[in-house]
Automatic annotation (TrEMBL):
<dbReference type="InterPro" id="IPR050595">
    <property type="entry name" value="Bact_response_regulator"/>
</dbReference>
<keyword id="KW-0597">Phosphoprotein</keyword>
<feature type="domain" description="Response regulatory">
    <location>
        <begin position="4"/>
        <end position="118"/>
    </location>
</feature>
<dbReference type="InterPro" id="IPR011006">
    <property type="entry name" value="CheY-like_superfamily"/>
</dbReference>
<protein>
    <submittedName>
        <fullName>Response regulator receiver domain-containing protein</fullName>
    </submittedName>
</protein>
<dbReference type="InterPro" id="IPR001789">
    <property type="entry name" value="Sig_transdc_resp-reg_receiver"/>
</dbReference>
<feature type="modified residue" description="4-aspartylphosphate">
    <location>
        <position position="53"/>
    </location>
</feature>
<dbReference type="GO" id="GO:0000160">
    <property type="term" value="P:phosphorelay signal transduction system"/>
</dbReference>
<dbReference type="Pfam" id="PF00072">
    <property type="entry name" value="Response_reg"/>
</dbReference>
<keyword id="KW-0902">Two-component regulatory system</keyword>
Length: 127
């Protein structure tokens, strides 16, 4: 199983900051700036965790997550939501997200959630 993550966020500056954090920790990742781009990446490779911003132009993160899960049902998604929208994070979990983080993200907390999501995916893969 691949241990690659996908980061989906339309804010390129934010993607850059997250990318630097993950590179420093030797985490293999790819990034997308839209749902269309994310679905394209999903079609080309295997990902075990997707970090998905909710607020994006076009298809929002929750709609995109639903579409991605039709392609890869076992995909674990961690929702990123800004402006203290706790309800959006909870809604995402009810719709199948593994967990959520509020922006600005505590990167160490995010890394912990990624580890837990990977463990869940690995356990299911061997079940």
């Amino acid at each position: 199983m691949s241990h690659k993550i996908m980061i989906v966020d339309d804010e390129t500056d934010y993607l850059e900051v997250m990318g630097k954090f993950f590179r420093r920790r030797k985490v293999d990742f790819e990034s997308a700036t839209s749902c269309m781009e994310a679905l394209d990446l999903l079609g080309k490779g295997c990902f075990d965790v997707v970090i998905m911003d909710v607020s994006m132009p076009g298809k929002d993160g929750l709609a995109c997550m639903a579409e991605m899960k039709t392609v890869q049902p076992e995909l674990e998604v961690i929702i990123l939501t800004g402006h203290g929208s706790l309800n959006t994070g909870l809604l995402g979990m009810r719709q199948g997200a593994f967990d959520y983080c509020l922006k600005p993200v505590d990167f160490d907390e995010l890394l912990e959630k990624i580890t837990l999501a990977r463990e869940k995916a690995a356990t299911r893969g061997h079940g």
